[in-house]
Amino acid sequence: MSTDVSALVPQRIGVHPLTGHIGAEIDGVDLRQPLAPAVVAEIRAALQSWKVVFFRDQPLSHAEHVAFASAFGAPTIGHPVYGFVEGHPQVYAVARDRLADRHTGDLLVRPWTGWHSDVTAAVNPPAASILRGVVIPPYGGDTLWTNLAEAYNGLSETLRGFVDTLRGVHQFSPPEGQQATDGFVQKNAARPLVSEHPLVRVIPETGERVLFVSPSFLKRITGLTPRESQQLLELLFEHVTRPEYTVRFRWHPGSVAFWDNRTTAHLAPRDIFSLDFDRQLYRITLRGDVPVGVDGRPSLAIKGDPIDAYPA
Questions:
Q1: Among 96, 175, 222, 246, which is disulfide-ready with 279 (CB 3.0 to 4.6 Å)?
Q2: 178 has pLDDT over 90
Q3: pTM for the full model?
């Protein structure tokens, strides 16, 4: 009988799953230091299995954050419309009140309101996002993620067969009067980002099928009447946010969350707006590829440019 040599190689990190379907904490690694290729491979494998992984007690600087992210892909501009931290073009500031001037009036809140995958209105949404906590309130401010691959598997076989054939339009329109940070950002700030993606995305490395629906950006299903589209989208949005597919993360200063943006959606907290505490996190996104559906058709850019690595 042959021996599995890989089973004899000691693991360099600890991976501790948090729920049955999504999320794991990783220990045994200092993200401030350059990572050995074997450690990068183990973190990548944990991410592939658990969709989002978390690290504690990692007080990264902006430069260390960029270096860690770069071990897993090519960082993009901080945000294709809202810009970046001065002096660190790959870093986007996620401040408590960053949305305060982007929305006016009362928000229509439904069970899936706020859930999204990052920048899916672009033809090549980020492959992954890495968010680190710096200023964290003593309570409140948790973030949730959901596993879109498990959500796809949870549909009936009949409905899976139907959504396999569908495509949807994702759109993001900058608020009127939004000022771009520089010329690189200006090319997308001047107009909305609009793309048509398959509702079911196939992940190239694994062949895994993912219910690629982003409630904040997916506006309509191609080829259906408005009422049909609305009803099906609401069913799918409700489905992907079912509690059994989710994990809830309690932040501390120095916490880092690293998620596969292709296979997850997440929800930023709203309870922080009823608290008198500051909250400051920083995010880096990694350049993604163009999604491909079950039929092999890639996504289509309708308006706006692809998100390239920085510098372009």
A1: 96
A2: no
A3: 0.91
